[in-house]
């Protein structure tokens, strides 16, 4: 899809009017637009319409032949010059971007003058000024009724924009992205009916109550991708047979309950109570235990891991504390990860790798690639230890891999800090090499 990011002043608007006249000339037999169409436009567009009429009359005059002109027929007195392609026809712009300082006059001309036969496919709207809210809402109402497919809205204001309900009741919308930059914007639609919506991304939004999540689930029967980032969710439940990719990161919530058997990709930051139903189609899962396993409202750990047992690729961040709590209070032996081929473990301290490594190696008979990494956590926190690891300091727990079954890994990758536990890492590396017998081993110190 061709993307035009537009910002034009009065001169560009004049040019657009000329080109519109050219477009009308290229459509033989086209009926003139009804008079009511012009009346809906801003009065300030009078000069542009006058320019269009003048340009149209100019185009009707026969061209003046000149020597060397392309298309000149030898021995003939008339010249038929080739028709130059129109540079930027309004109807040929499938994707329009309106920045926060775009004027009402410009936006009206760009959206309302569009032919019904050349519908806008995608609109990107940036809003940052409360004075522009009324006509920006008008633009949204207009495109929602004209077959828009992709809508990307960025709100960079401290005031609430109050999205019109028609945005959540657009029969043609297939992808919607809503982002806030300064304060969380409240999402509280009265109704949701988006029968074709496949992708929904929310950034820094606040769902007013549990009913919003229910409306989004029931009102989007074709939803395949749901991405929530830095949102306030409260108690959030999603029940869908169509969602294939779910991402909930850096969000605040009390409880999340996911019942989506078709999920193939899961990305989840654990900060509150989490309940995951079975995910038989799961291929890739990324889980960050931001609560350090200390959250008293956390769901049963065994049920949590049961939902992940079908994954082929697992990325687990600060997962040691969750496993410690689970293994200190054993209920069952835990699930078997028979499909698991690739495992990434990110921890603060070297000793934090012992438990996750022992747990998964014993339960993943087909594991081929193992990565133990401290770098990402240090990088995200500017090289400083944070969270529960900061208060624990250096652990006295010793490495014990006597109960770990030997396996043949394809790749073993270690990315470890040159910290106080470097000596412990030397022991870990030697024993890992003996237990996993990797065909390829990569060690990176930082």
Task: Give a verbal description of the structure.
It is elongated, with a radius of gyration of 30 Å. The protein has 446 residues and is an alpha/beta fold. It has helices at 10-25, 35-39, 46-60, 104-112, 133-144, 210-219, 301-308, 320-328, 354-363, 375-380, 388-392, 422-436; strands spanning 4-5, 95-98, 122-127, 150-155, 175-180, 185-187, 199-203, 205-207, 225-229, 232-239, 245-249, 252-259, 265-270, 273-276, 284-289, 313-317, 342-346, 369-373, 411-416, 440-445. It has twelve helices and 20 strands. β2 (95-98), α4 (104-112) and β3 (122-127) form a beta-alpha-beta unit. The two termini are 43 Å apart. α1 (10-25) crosses α3 (46-60) and α4 (104-112) runs parallel beside α5. The chain has a domain at 1-19 and 89-222. The strands form three sheets. Strands 1-2-3-4-5-7-9-11-13-15-16-17-18-19-20 form a 15-stranded parallel β-sheet. Strands 10-12-14 form a three-stranded parallel β-sheet. Residues 1-15, 17-49 and 66-91 have low confidence and may be disordered.
Keywords:
446 residues; alpha/beta; three-stranded parallel beta sheet; 27% helix; elongated; disordered N terminus; F-box_SCFL_complex_component
Helix-strand blueprint:
Elements: E1 4-5, H1 10-25, H2 35-39, H3 46-60, E2 95-98, H4 104-112, E3 122-127, H5 133-144, E4 150-155, E5 175-180, E6 185-187, E7 199-203, E8 205-207, H6 210-219, E9 225-229, E10 232-239, E11 245-249, E12 252-259, E13 265-270, E14 273-276, E15 284-289, H7 301-308, E16 313-317, H8 320-328, E17 342-346, H9 354-363, E18 369-373, H10 375-380, H11 388-392, E19 411-416, H12 422-436, E20 440-445
Parallel strand pairs: 1-2, 2-3, 3-4, 4-5, 5-7, 6-8, 7-9, 9-11, 10-12, 11-13, 12-14, 13-15, 15-16, 16-17, 17-18, 18-19, 19-20
